[in-house]
Amino acid sequence: MVNVMDIPEEEYIFPGTRACAGCAMALIYRIALKALGSNTIVTVPASCLTVLHGMQGFCTTKISVYHTPFATTGASASGILASLEDKGLADEITVLAFAGDGGTADIGIQALSGAAERGTNFIYACYDNEAYMNTGVQRSGSTPIGVQTTTTPEGKLVHKKNMPKILEAHGIPYVATANAAYPLDLYEKFKRAKDIKGPKYIHILSPCPPGWGYNPKDTMLIGRLANETGFWPLYEVLDGKFELSNSSKRYLDSSKRKPITDYLKAQKRFKSIDEKIVKTYEKYIDNTWKEIKSRLESS
């Protein structure tokens, strides 16, 4: 188990970035780089992270960053790794692809799938703020049902895409979910992924104050509610073996979960939902945890 004293003091992001107040993605990125260290090359598509990095000619990190077109994150990571292999540096440097849900679940899924199928030795981290936040809050494949966005003004009609399952179906050695509100768990998962050969995929809930509609000071509260209501379980799949993370184990008992309405009502993006959508969420969560129990029993 990691404790706070295990986290390195060195920072790899300079202060004063252009991220929004309360941005969970900035915290996720900070923790990930602490776990991976200075011998890391990051490739990033168009996203909120490119905003954090700054204008052309500047960068807010102490490590090498390659900005790539929206659809090509997995391909660019493969190219970076191929270059490192040619120079004999592949065992010394970690290649990290870091993209939002739009650049992962939608526009970038082809390149990601190709890199996973080829067995590329990289870490792909999706910070999931559940919409295209950088371009005006349009719905993505990762937007949950009922959410109001600029392209779903009356609420999205279908559930979000299950990207961890999609990547797990590729047969890669490591898949995990994480949450910005649980930084020690997040740190531990990046550390574990660093030592595994082959494609690694970490899907991270990244609450977004302007896109979700809550006070920036409540980012950790919102993230924890996602876990405490059972909506966002934390787990790992290592070489096909499913394991529930410590922060989610108590929610195997449904009586320990908070009502999903605690999570939904805390965000303005859900203001149009009705009782039917609430029931849909309750069923979705129950089915999710039935599957988790089944996987734990069979492993």
Task: Tell me what the structure shows.
- Helix content is about 40%, strand content about 15%.
- It has about 300 residues and is α/β, with parallel strands linked by helices.
- Strand 5 (about 175-180), helix 7 and strand 6 form a beta-alpha-beta unit.
- The radius of gyration is 18 Å and the shape is globular.
- The two termini are about 20 Å apart.
- The relative contact order is 0.13.
Brief sketch in words of this structure:
The chain has helices at 24-36, 48-53, 73-86, 102-106, 109-118, 163-168, 183-194, 209-212, 219-228, 246-249, 260-264, 275-298; strands at 40-44, 64-67, 94-100, 123-128, 174-179, 200-205, 235-238, 241-244. The chain has 299 residues and is an alpha/beta fold.
Summary keywords:
299 residues; alpha/beta; Rossmann fold; eight-stranded mixed sheet; 12 helices; 8 strands; 14% strand; globular
Question: Looking at CATH, which topology would you report?
Answer: Rossmann fold
Percentage of residues in helical conformation: 25-40%
Arithmetic mean pLDDT: 97
CATH level-1 class: Alpha Beta
- Strand runs, count: 8
Q: Total helix count? A: 12
The run of helices and strands is: HEHEHEHHEHEHEHHEEHHH
List the helices and strands and how they pair.
Elements: H1 24-36, E1 40-44, H2 48-53, E2 64-67, H3 73-86, E3 94-100, H4 102-106, H5 109-118, E4 123-128, H6 163-168, E5 174-179, H7 183-194, E6 200-205, H8 209-212, H9 219-228, E7 235-238, E8 241-244, H10 246-249, H11 260-264, H12 275-298
Parallel strand pairs: 1-2, 1-3, 3-4, 4-6, 5-6
Antiparallel strand pairs: 5-7, 7-8
Helix pairs in contact: 1-7, 3-5
